[in-house]
DNA sequence: ATTAATGCAAACGGTTTGCACTACT
DNA sequence: AGTAGTGCAAACCGTTTGCATTAAT
């Protein structure tokens, strides 16, 4: 209706990825662009194998080592963060601008993010009762989601 | 090798391990005894590599494949339960008589069990707010313990 | 012209498997 | 005697690395 809606200047970290890289003397290559495209379209967390597969769809010549190295590079830029999925494999969490954990359903394989607010009770009770500071970005809760339970 | 699944753990599971095995037509071997010795002395959760190393200390001829197969067998007996540590490697939880999760300190490497009581707030809030049934045995919380924080 | 990044192939480390042999029952 | 379990070596799979080549700066 009428004019385009006013949008808060949401600086897109992916758009600036190229500059961030150049600023550090890193190079902006087609392969890196592709990996970043895939990440940008992702749901927030992807297995390394997913990234490789998706890249290969766009460019069948994609090489695993290049993908891994790009993911490494992006992690040093702070754009992603790696961890391990329930099955023990590498998993990359995209854009941890706000630190968060994950919730997985063992039945349907679905996954959701757990933000600080949602984890508040947990972090508080751990701090109060055990003096334990929870690292939210490593929090993983496994179980059955509402639909599957 | 498919054994019948699922057995209730008894009061002193290690003493009865031999009988439980024989009852299923499994055999009681020195190698298995050794693995079980190691598990019995363990703190409640061990990495596969720990088990192998400890076994090798007692018997340098210990073979990884045998250890893995024994751990498999013990899991089908319900005496242990496997999962994945923070670094993504196999980890075995001994005697999950009472279901529990784990808490790890990234600084000192210490680990503690989280029992149902301690996790009560978490499980309740997940159930109430997301309809999510937490699987306590897969709960892993990472952070800094009271001493290290 | 530099030198970072790529692509390949080979190395890696933890886990699994096939198979002939051993030894528990 | 019969067969589950062992030990070895080789396969596996996801990830990492060395190195000569390519290409972004």
Structure overview:
2 copies of one chain form a homodimer. The first copy, chain A, is α+β, with helices and mostly antiparallel strands and 149 residues long. The first copy, chain A, is 39% helix and 21% strand. A 3-stranded antiparallel sheet of chain A has the order 1-3-2. In chain A, strands 5-4-7 form a 3-stranded mixed sheet, with no helix packed on it. In chain A, helix 2 packs across helix 3 (48-58) and helix 3 packs across helix 4 (64-76). The radius of gyration of chain A is 18 Å and the shape is globular. The termini of chain A are far apart. The A-B interface holds A 84, 86-90, 103, 105-106, 112, 118, 121-122, 125-126, 129-135, 138-146, 149 and B 84, 86-90, 103, 105-106, 112, 118, 121-122, 125-126, 129-135, 138-146, 149. Chain B binds a DNA duplex (25 and 25 nucleotides) through residues 1, 22, 25-29, 31-32, 48-49, 61, 63-66, 68-70, 73, 89-90.
Structural class by helix and strand composition of chain A: alpha+beta
The averaged pLDDT of chain A comes out at 82
Q: Say what the CATH topology of the largest domain in chain A is.
A: Arc Repressor Mutant, subunit A
Strand portion of chain A: 15-25%
Total strands of chain A: 7
Output the helix-strand order of chain A: HHEHHEEEEHEE
Per CATH, the architecture of the largest domain in chain A is Orthogonal Bundle
Count of spatially separate domains of chain A: 2
- The radius of gyration of chain A is 18 Å
**Residues in helix, % of chain A:** 25-40%
Q: What separation lies between the terminal Cα atoms of chain A?
A: 43 Å
Largest interface: A-B, 32 and 32 residues
Q: Which stretches of chain A are poorly predicted, pLDDT < 50 over at least 5 residues? A: 1-10
Which strand order do you get reading across the main beta sheet of chain A? 1-3-2
Anisotropy-based shape of chain A: globular
Largest sheet of chain A: 3 strands, antiparallel
Q: DSSP helix count of chain A? A: 5
CATH class of the largest domain in chain A: Mainly Alpha
Within CATH, the superfamily of the largest domain in chain A carries the name Winged helix-like DNA-binding domain superfamily/Winged helix DNA-binding domain
Q: Oligomeric status of the shown chains?
A: homodimer
């Amino acid at each position: 209706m009428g004019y385009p809606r006013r949008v808060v200047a949401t600086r897109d970290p992916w758009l600036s990825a190229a500059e961030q890289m150049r600023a550090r003397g890193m190079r902006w290559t087609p392969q890196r662009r592709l990996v970043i495209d895939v990440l940008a379209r992702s749901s927030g967390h992807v297995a390394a194998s997913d990234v490789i597969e998706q890249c290969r769809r766009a460019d069948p010549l994609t090489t695993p080592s290049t993908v891994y190295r790009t993911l490494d590079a992006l992690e040093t830029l702070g754009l992603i963060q790696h961890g391990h999925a329930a099955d023990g494999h590498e998993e990359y969490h995209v854009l941890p601008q706000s630190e968060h954990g994950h919730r997985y359903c063992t039945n349907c394989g679905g996954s959701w993010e757990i933000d600080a607010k949602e984890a508040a009770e947990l972090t508080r009770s751990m701090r109060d009762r055990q003096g334990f500071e929870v690292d939210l970005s490593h929090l993983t809760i496994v179980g059955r989601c509402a639909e599957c339970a």
